[in-house]
Automatic annotation (TrEMBL):
Active site: E205
ATP-binding found in the keyword field: no
UniProt source species: Chitinophaga agrisoli
Protein name: Beta-xylosidase
Signal peptide annotation: 1-23
Record domain Glycosyl hydrolases family 39 N-terminal catalytic: where: 29-527
Family of the protein in this entry: Belongs to the glycosyl hydrolase 39 family.
Keywords in alphabetical order: Glycosidase, Hydrolase, Signal
UniProt cross-references to InterPro entries, sorted A to Z: GH, GH39_cat, Glyco_hydro_39, Glycosyl_Hydrolase_39
Pfam families per record: Glyco_hydro_39
Biological process annotations from GO: carbohydrate metabolic process
GO MF entries: hydrolase activity, hydrolyzing O-glycosyl compounds
Lineage of producing organism: Bacteria, Pseudomonadati, Bacteroidota, Chitinophagia, Chitinophagales
PANTHER family: ALPHA-L-IDURONIDASE
Amino acid sequence: MTQHPILRLLLLLPLLLPGRLLAQNDTVNIQVDTRTPKGPMQPIWAWFGYDEPNYTYMKDGKKLLTEISQLSKVPVYVRTHSLLVTGDGKAALKWGSTNAYTEDSQGRPIYNWTIIDSIFDTYIQRGMKPLAQIGFMPQALSVKPEPYRHHWQPDNSYGDIFTGWAYPPKDYKKFAALVYEWVKHCVARYGKAEVESWYWEMWNEPNIDYWKGTTEEYIKLYDYSADAVKRALPTARIGGPEVTGPNWKDAADFLKAFLDHVVNGTNYATGKRGAPLDLISFHAKGSPKLVNGVVQMNMGTQLRDIDKGFEIVASYPTLKHLPIIIGESDPEGCAACSENYHPQNAYRNGTMYSSYTAAAFARKYDLAAARGIHLAGAVTWAFEFEDQPWFAGFRDLATNGVDKPVLNVFRMFGKMQGQRVQVSGPLAYDAFRIRDSSVRGSQPDVNALATADAHSVSVMVWNYHDNNSPAPATPVAITIKGLPNGQLRLQHYRIDSTHSNAYTVWKQLGSPQQPTPEQVAQLEKAGQLEQLAAPEQLTAANGQTVIRMIMPRQGVSLLQLSW
């Protein structure tokens, strides 16, 4: 066993302090066995999305997309709303438009792909791929075209936002023609092979007000749209239904009705049995609240949604092999609801969001494996909000071009490769306990996700609790087995209050809303993934080594051993 001198001192420090905060037997022991693979490290984390499509090609949007594309070894998929919404293309909170479809005075279609091309070009130029959302309804096709444009505000001073864009079409064939022309245009612009690698999906959360039609009308729209996609490009991949909250009865009923139709229903567009389906999608969200002034997360709510969705899909023998994409998978539901007006969202700027993300993604792998389904992706519905106050408490990955701690979790995921391998030990939580009761006990969730390939091992370790209260750090000992004997190189990356954390630095600077160029440069540097200490050499004997460290509450570490 080899310890870095500083880590050894940190481990002993609580024993030297009066009124010791920790005892020696408080150490959490984690076992990682590289000889026990658990399946490939499917990059389910390499999926992102947001409400406002026009942010895509704006200054900070382009910068963030570049950073997201660079953190992943595989192409990142991006999902965004409102790609078919009528309007002038000006961005606003929870709003966007492309003006892709209008009609002349005779009711004849006018297609305009300029803004959609700007969005997709931005992705393709960075090696990213669209999870292309077919929605929402162009004004000229809506059965209720007025009112159409909404003006959502984060202080709740707005009326109904589910306006004309949320309604069914007055002519399903015209909508199908729009989808057909859109796919044909993409093939002409980007090439058949590129578009074959995308996913197309139908609408968003049709079991709530995002869809003002019936379940059957959604199914009809899906049939017409899927047929149009396949006529334009037979090898294209399309799916749905993007319901939210599969653990709710209405969402479960909607998902089952959709899947029943895909298997046995009469297709509205073709008259044949069933409908094409290449992916299955649903959403899952947590539910934070304030308890005595402290933010309390609810990861269990999110995991119950995920597990119920998996359970429903697994009940269809002819469909359970299809890729599942959790189209939005987040700690709660409203990215644009800032903590200024929604104080339960005060987890977003700091390390609680990053530790939640690490712990939640690890459990998605376990739930998928338990249900025997194919989880292809889980979309983090967080991006950036252009020209908003610094660290305003939106659910975003960056603020004014400066990365938040949560983005560094994805940088950690991007460094993990190979097979997932076994993690075990006398650990307080697993996916099923969190699903059933969240993380509410006296002990935090200190656990790990590990991968291994021929020349490296990566171990992500977190110290998470639903309650964002001050708490002592936890000593952790990670025993890694199945290593080659001899010298190993250790790199230790960390997210905590003083590492990979631009929010802490911003507060230290006095929380400036107009930082100087020098301060911006300092914040940008602080927003990058940081190593806890310089790389060091360890020695493995008898095929194993032990790494000891102190993990602060809501901290995340990535340990990488290479040889």
